Amino acid sequence: MHFNTIKPGILLIIVIATCNNSLGATQSYITDEFEVTLRSGASTTNEILLLLKSGQAVTLIEQDLDSGYSLVETESGNQGYILSRYLVDLPSAKQRLEQLQLSTAGQVQENLSLLAEVESLQTSLSIQQSDNENLTEALLASEEELNRVRTAAEYAFEAIEANKVLQASLGQLQEQNSNLSEENEALKDSTELDWFLRGGAVALVAFLIGILITRIRWRKQQSWGAY
Questions:
Q1: In contact, 36 and 52? CB cutoff 8 Å
Q2: Total domains present in the chain
């Protein structure tokens, strides 16, 4: 059969059907949720005791390499046989993923807690820095006040020393004043005596002059009487 002999209507139907089949195909995944039979013996002919879910933990008691079955015990205490190929040393990928997600969530929560703690520490550090700045300013102010007190104390010490010197000078001046007062008293007494002596001498001279004058007058009277 040649393609030229195919009618256009049949060709169109074939194309449409092919497109519909292509458009209807979707991607799917095989579930990891499956159940494993726990049997009373090491064969498919034995009774099914339980259906174990994937990822369920069991204790391995013994393994039969010939039959491919292993004797296990569940966490509830039930014993039975399961195909050995369904046993693995690690939890299922789903369980490990859940554990990883839980661990990741825990790490995220811990990180958030650490971030909150870091923010709290930063806030506390800022407060401490502010307090340190205030304390530094207060310390500088205290040092300045201490310097002023030291300067005032030095001035006070110098004033005390100067006062001592002045007191010593005052004592010397008082002593000199006392000596001068005594000398003045002595000079005063000496002056009064000198004036007294001078007055007595003047009176004596006047007395003698009076006597002389009297004698001179008397002699003149005698001489006049003789004539």
A1: yes
A2: 2
In a domain, 119, yes or no: yes
Global pTM? 0.37
Strand ranges across the sheet with 35-39: 48-53, 35-39, 79-83, 69-74, 58-64
Query: What is the spatial distance between Cα 101 and Cα 119, in angstroms, rounded to a whole number?
Result: 26
Looking up residue 76, the CATH number of its domain turns out to be 2.30.30.40
CA–CA distance, 157 with 126 (Å, rounded to integer):
45
**pLDDT digit string, tens, across residues 144-154:** 888 888 888 88
Long-range contacts of 44-48 (CB under 8 A, 24+ apart): 46/81
Q: How many CB atoms lie within 10 A of CB 186?
A: 10
Do 126 and 67 lie in one domain? The reply is: no
**How far apart are the C-alpha atoms of 69 and 42, rounded to whole Å?**
5
* Residue 2 pLDDT: 46
Among 118, 49, 124, residue whose Cα is nearest residue 82: 49
Does residue 165 fall inside a structural domain? Answer: yes
Q: Is residue 160 part of a domain?
A: yes
Range of the domain at 143: 102-172
